[in-house]
Amino acid sequence: MTPQEIADSAREAHEAGAAVVHVHLRDEEGLPTADLGVAKETLALIQESCPALVQLSTGVGLGVPFEEREVLVEARPRMASLNPCSMSFGSGEFLNPPSGVRRLAARMQELGVKPELEIYDTGHLEAALLLVEEGW
């Protein structure tokens, strides 16, 4: 849950053979967070503990606004998730507005953060291919 615990888990996974670690951040209460300070601390601790490639989740959790989630790429992980579409997720809504997705894709390009596309159905694949055609 804590940045140090996440870094320890990343190191253990790397020692077991993982080359990439997918990271979801938590606040002091164990809830999903898009806090940039937590992201930077966690990434720094992982980088100190092992050479695994960090793929940071920008999905964070239901109820966390897109505008808060997209800021996570400012921590400059080598990879981050890019969800091309909004969707129902269980009983909640996971909002990824098209203009926000393009803004996030552009910022990822500027920072050199490789997008990891989250494809949950065929419509998401079509939206992702459109992003590719548009140069994102």
Helix content: 40-55%
Main β sheet profile: 4 strands, parallel
Query: Which structural class do the helices and strands define?
Result: alpha/beta
What are the segments in which pLDDT stays under 50 over at least 5 consecutive residues?
Answer: none
Structure, explained:
- The protein is 42% helix and 16% strand.
- With 136 residues, it is of the alpha/beta class.
- The strands form two sheets. Strands 1-2-3-6 form a four-stranded parallel β-sheet, with helices on one face.
- Helix 1 (3-15) packs parallel to helix 2.
- It is globular.
Q: What order do the helices and strands come in, and which of them pair?
A:
Layout: H1 3-15, E1 20-23, H2 36-49, E2 53-56, H3 66-69, E3 79-82, E4 87-89, E5 92-94, H4 98-111, E6 114-117, H5 122-133
Parallel strand pairs: 1-2, 2-3, 3-6
Antiparallel strand pairs: 4-5
Which terms summarize this structure?
136 residues; alpha/beta; 4-stranded parallel beta sheet
Short summary of the structure?
With 136 residues, the protein is of the alpha/beta class. Helices cover 42% and strands 16% of the residues.
